[in-house]
Amino acid sequence: MSKPRIAVTMGDPAGIGPELCLRLLHEPAVRMLCEPMIYGSAALLEAVARECGPALEPGAPVVDCAGDEAAAVAPGVPTAAGGRVACACIRAALQAVLEGRADALVTAPISKAALRLAGVAFPGHTEMLAHLTGARRYAMMFAAEGLVVSLATIHVPYARVPDTLSTAGILDVIELTAEALRRLGTASPRLAVCGLNPHAGEGGLFGREEQEIILPAVRAARERGFSVSGPLPPDTAFLPEARRRADAIVAMYHDQGLIPFKMLAFDRGVNVTLGLPIVRTSPDHGTAFDIARQGSASPGSMREAVRWAVRLAAGSRKS
Amino acid sequence: MSKPRIAVTMGDPAGIGPELCLRLLHEPAVRMLCEPMIYGSAALLEAVARECGPALEPGAPVVDCAGDEAAAVAPGVPTAAGGRVACACIRAALQAVLEGRADALVTAPISKAALRLAGVAFPGHTEMLAHLTGARRYAMMFAAEGLVVSLATIHVPYARVPDTLSTAGILDVIELTAEALRRLGTASPRLAVCGLNPHAGEGGLFGREEQEIILPAVRAARERGFSVSGPLPPDTAFLPEARRRADAIVAMYHDQGLIPFKMLAFDRGVNVTLGLPIVRTSPDHGTAFDIARQGSASPGSMREAVRWAVRLAAGSRKS
Q1: Of A235, A244, A257, A192, nearest to B260 (Cα)?
Q2: If one looks up domain B1-135+276-319 in CATH, what number appears?
Q3: Which of A199, A206, A255 sits opposite B234 (nearest CB)?
């Protein structure tokens, strides 16, 4: 079997994405696993290589798709040009994966502010990719070795979470998560679903979302043959004993999942978009404008994103 | 200076409290630190000692305050009698501390269900002690070596947290926490205050409680001379680097504080009630009815509760 081809976007040209792409191309571990293709600006990558290294080798696998304006983007500040360049890279790389010219998509960080300046209405990759591929249901999953957490709601203000949660939505996330775990090689995945309230409501004493919204989703998933426990008291759902009993944990809201995930897997966590017709992963950090082009950005999470993309792509080929 | 005298309540007679009290009396580390006084039922403690050990030595420091009904309480089930006994122990021990016959109060776990059966309206120790001592403002703090977390709201359903949070309430918790840290020997405590929303609201994009409720409390605390940072994005507020920059973290709701606290300090965490006219601590676990009188309950958290009570009482003497 040939090595999978991974389309990697350069991300916002003012952030750390370009230098991380250069580093990826120099990582023997990455080249052993896959054939990375950088979707970005050759001129900008060359400039960044001169500024903070490492070198862009002649013949490096770069697909130039950002036009001339990329090279003019200064580091450290979100701009409309940066937003346009980032979008162009995503569109080109996505097209390559959809047409079978690549097996998976890995995206370097983009800037919400730059997107807004460029007149792009999406708050991030997840929503943009869902729109571009027409995905009806999608979810955000975070993965690290031995720890998988998916979110029933994502970038929702705290107060709006109870109204945003729905039995159908939680059931979707359970199904999408189980499907991803199967692709990753777990034939019969066990999922744990968190409650929303302290002590998972303690029988209705501290809230009723468990009985009214979450438990019906857990029951419906069981009826469809999934192995699901919960709703669990959130403050013990991430302890070692609970984690040993589940292959993935479904959190009800952003910080319920990300406080423990970042504590357990900082700098090695990967973001996976579930529900797209393609495999897509990304690192668990942002554009880091403050340290762009200083040569100090760590490629750890980006390398992990490539590794998980390769694993998920291999699982997709089989399934 | 004589050793501090610590009043320890037996907790619900059907739970693991009685056996933990017996174990405490046998711990050399505890006897070296303080003079523990068990407020409970001598007859029940003798029965538990016979059932699962260790022995209750003749002349052991037990204050018999639970009447005859304690000895008849069977293990493992919440009952009205159990609730009454637990309350009697708390009242007697509290009185001893208020009258200066003991220096601090450590409470073994009680059962909310047993209290309800006994016709006691309080959901737990914190609220009962606040009522009995007339405390105007109080808060729950969790402590372990190198980690202190206090809560701006406690047993509130998820959906009611935004309306329960107030600038004045958060300011109270900041002040009470700083006061406790000073007692514990940190002359100029640094506090970090969490936001409520994902990314602490990201400038209002994901909620406005940060600007409208939390930031005003942080500013008011600074004006009063406290060293306070925040509101911080919750999902990174508990990472090692952030913890190094703060002596305590103020969480906005139960699981925001307790998911990370339990992950970092399981089985060695201690609950401290702030704002009472006395020092009160308790272990970080419940009655554990399911393992009562099997001799398997770990006294680790109870021993820690005694250690923190001794430290806080020493700080109170000085202040």
Answers
A1: A235
A2: 3.40.718.10
A3: A255
